[in-house]
Design a protein that fits this description.
The chain is built from six helices and seven strands, in the order βββαβαβαβαβαα. By secondary structure, the chain is an alpha/beta fold. It has a five-stranded parallel β-sheet, with helices on both faces. Strands 2-3 form a two-stranded antiparallel sheet.
Length: 159
């Protein structure tokens, strides 16, 4: 079974956050412990310059596997929708999405629907790091947008 690790980005002031760096480190641990065909980094460049995906690739210290970039996604729904074609093109049947614990609800909501609709089995790994209160407030603030983001992801997949 072909498998991949997917890491949605997170940046502050144009640089990947310490939390995002922890996600990359967890992806490295998973890749070292299992046979994985690709690692997909997804995330845009909110202030121009290098995207979150580029910065995560530059931070990678894990095994020599194919590193795939999706440098345009701004929100979780876009991470799921825009990484899907990259997985499908590589014949990926199983994906591990690495995210923060407080991001887990949103990640499961979007990735399970998008990947599941295309027969890709999806599991999730949550990494504890970073400022928990700040992350909680961010997630609570994002909750009202979930339906709008899902509609946008569906529209994008229909193109």
């Amino acid at each position: 079974m072909r498998s991949a690790i997917v890491v949605p980005g997170h940046a502050r002031r144009g640089r990947i956050s310490s939390l995002c760096l922890e996600l990359v480190r967890e992806a490295e641990r998973i890749a070292a412990a299992t046979e994985v065909d690709a690692v997909v980094f997804s995330g845009w460049a909110p202030r121009g310059g290098n995207s979150e995906a580029d910065q995560m690739r530059a931070a990678w210290r894990g095994p020599d596997v194919e590193l795939v970039l999706e440098p345009t996604a701004r929100v979780t729904a876009e991470n799921a929708a825009r990484t899907l074609p990259l997985l499908v093109a590589r014949g990926i049947e199983h994906a591990v999405v690495v995210c923060a614990p407080l991001h887990l609800f949103r990640a499961r909501f979007f990735f399970s629907r998008v990947y599941g609709a295309h027969g890709i089995a999806t599991e999730f790994r949550a990494v504890t790091a970073g400022r928990t209160l700040h992350a909680l407030l961010w997630e609570l603030g994002a909750t009202p947008a979930i339906r709008r983001h899902l509609r946008a992801a569906r529209t994008e997949l229909e193109r």
